[in-house]
């Protein structure tokens, strides 16, 4: 199965071509924020280098969040368009699960993306070929995240923790208080890789392209402003967009 995977969830852009679990090629651009300009050329380059066209792709996969609101929309809109026009399968993968998959250590993997002001998009996973989610993907204040880690660690006698993602090192003093051996991810482990998304996507359940939505895990400022203006309760993403 040929799988084309994309991550635009962070300032790291990643595109990959997989043949099942085999990563044929992965191309990355680090510390760039103009994904809207670079995504299509990267896809085109990968396809041309492998003598393929979009029609040859069996399944599309994308990181659906959490992450940058604008970035997520770019990647998700792109693969939804491809899947819909070509009548192909599409799969959404948690950006935090994709981070966890890059860790080879036998440990509790805490994946986190810096959301500023001591807040993180974070989760806990058990490392493995398909990382098992044991602390739900969410938007956490660091103290709430620490409590969730403590609760899980005590109940399951965690022996080691690996922290991967962005901005976690600045919480080092709080992590020391856990009294559990831990390490931080390497430079490669701390970014989301499209090839790993492709591996997770091979056995994931496809969805209708129209139902593939970002998982922001917190309200956008536009939604908050809309709620204040209208007084109406928050609605699912699709309802909100129609109201605007």
From TrEMBL:
CC annotations in GO: cytosol
InterPro entries: ATPase_NBD, Gcp-like_dom, T6A_TsaB
Gene3D superfamilies the record matches: 3.30.420.40
Pfam families: TsaD
CDD domains: ASKHA_NBD_TsaB (cd24032)
Keyword terms of this UniProt record: Transferase
Domain of life: Bacteria
BP GO terms, sorted: tRNA threonylcarbamoyladenosine modification
Every Gcp-like domain range: 32-170
GO function terms (MF aspect): transferase activity
PANTHER family: TRNA N6-ADENOSINE THREONYLCARBAMOYLTRANSFERASE (PTHR11735), TRNA THREONYLCARBAMOYLADENOSINE BIOSYNTHESIS PROTEIN TSAB (PTHR11735:SF11)
Name the UniProt record assigns to this protein: tRNA (Adenosine(37)-N6)-threonylcarbamoyltransferase complex dimerization subunit type 1 TsaB
Annotated organism of origin: Lactobacillus crispatus
């Amino acid at each position: 199965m040929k799988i084309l995977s994309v991550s635009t969830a962070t300032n790291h852009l990643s595109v990959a071509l997989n043949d099942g679990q085999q990563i044929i090629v992965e191309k990355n651009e680090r510390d760039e924020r103009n994904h809207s300009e670079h995504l299509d050329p990267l896809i085109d380059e990968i396809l041309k280098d492998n003598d393929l066209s979009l029609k040859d792709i069996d399944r599309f996969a994308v990181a659906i969040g959490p992450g940058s609101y604008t970035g997520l929309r770019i990647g998700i809109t792109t693969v939804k368009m491809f899947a819909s026009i070509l009548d192909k399968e599409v799969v959404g993968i948690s950006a935090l699960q994709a981070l966890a998959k890059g860790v080879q250590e036998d440990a509790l993997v805490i994946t986190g993306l810096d959301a500023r002001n001591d807040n993180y998009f974070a989760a806990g996973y058990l490392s493995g070929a398909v990382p098992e989610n044991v602390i739900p993907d969410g938007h956490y204040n660091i103290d709430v995240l620490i409590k969730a880690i403590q609760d899980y660690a005590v109940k399951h006698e965690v022996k080691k923790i690996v922290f991967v993602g962005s901005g976690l090192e600045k919480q080092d003093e709080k992590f020391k208080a856990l009294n559990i051996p831990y390490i931080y991810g390497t430079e490669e482990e701390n970014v989301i890789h499209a090839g790993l998304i492709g591996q997770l996507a091979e056995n994931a359940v496809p969805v209708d392209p129209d139902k593939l939505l970002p998982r922001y895990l917190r309200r956008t400022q536009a939604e908050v402003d809309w709620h204040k203006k209208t007084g109406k309760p928050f609605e699912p993403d699709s309802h909100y967009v129609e109201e605007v």
